[in-house]
């Protein structure tokens, strides 16, 4: 009985992984077709890094899956619709947007005065960590191209022809996916395929998360609590391992809130676990970039570098490691005294601020495009 259940679970995971690669490829195909006719739109939407940052934040806050957002960005870069430099801010924003889940979970403790402060602190320390990492690295990327230069250099060293590349075209699975994708585009149009690919990608990522969560955690949660938070190495390591496998930092970091709220896990250990989870979630983009262009691999590496640098700064440097803990603890204390603060924080950071900045940046960009010099030609990336 157990053997049959295990085989069923393994089969389900393998099918989901295959579906993941199919959805990524079809997504890239639809981006490629749409990008050929809408190069000006893509240039306008992502030319301003602030727009890209907040599109990533807002999109992930709505989808509640940074894995989905970053995979879509990888597909867009692979298709040539968006440049590496313009996609990196989207990935940065996705890292912030995915933290909304744990913050919302902390709101469920509002009626429990003894636990609410700790819950808010644990729920928002993830937000603060990603915001501070973005504050440090976003200007360096804008001014010096820090992440894009590093990731391009690494990708050029590791990107080599794969077995898939060397297969005769008709034997490659991607050849048949291209045929099927083009057929669907001819029947329904590229926008329908784009929407269907996004829905399929989102569903598969969630499905993989739920299957592996049940297998890895399930009824063993009490045992997990006793072994995962004994020291810094275990806290960080378990956060990285679980999120790498489950592929949902939203899910794994939300586990922390109840543990911290009830005092089973200290905020410091919870923060270390969250940093591990933040690094583990980059595996999805690396998988999505497999068998793709060097630019797509560069974006996946940039995502990894962004989170790695943040971890190195806030895990290994004592002065910096205390800042997110201090700020989240203060926010928890203020929220306990004025409970409307927690709701205002979510509304402003995750929705009002991104919508406002996107709106004004879009208006300014529209005006710039309307008054562009006629001799300048905009060409799509191919």
TrEMBL record:
<keyword id="KW-1003">Cell membrane</keyword>
<feature type="transmembrane region" description="Helical">
    <location>
        <begin position="46"/>
        <end position="63"/>
    </location>
</feature>
<feature type="transmembrane region" description="Helical">
    <location>
        <begin position="273"/>
        <end position="291"/>
    </location>
</feature>
<feature type="transmembrane region" description="Helical">
    <location>
        <begin position="298"/>
        <end position="320"/>
    </location>
</feature>
<feature type="transmembrane region" description="Helical">
    <location>
        <begin position="119"/>
        <end position="140"/>
    </location>
</feature>
<feature type="transmembrane region" description="Helical">
    <location>
        <begin position="340"/>
        <end position="360"/>
    </location>
</feature>
<feature type="transmembrane region" description="Helical">
    <location>
        <begin position="184"/>
        <end position="205"/>
    </location>
</feature>
<dbReference type="InterPro" id="IPR003841">
    <property type="entry name" value="Na/Pi_transpt"/>
</dbReference>
<protein>
    <submittedName>
        <fullName>Na/Pi symporter</fullName>
    </submittedName>
</protein>
<keyword id="KW-0812">Transmembrane</keyword>
<dbReference type="Pfam" id="PF02690">
    <property type="entry name" value="Na_Pi_cotrans"/>
</dbReference>
<feature type="transmembrane region" description="Helical">
    <location>
        <begin position="236"/>
        <end position="261"/>
    </location>
</feature>
<feature type="transmembrane region" description="Helical">
    <location>
        <begin position="12"/>
        <end position="34"/>
    </location>
</feature>
<keyword id="KW-0472">Membrane</keyword>
<keyword id="KW-1133">Transmembrane helix</keyword>
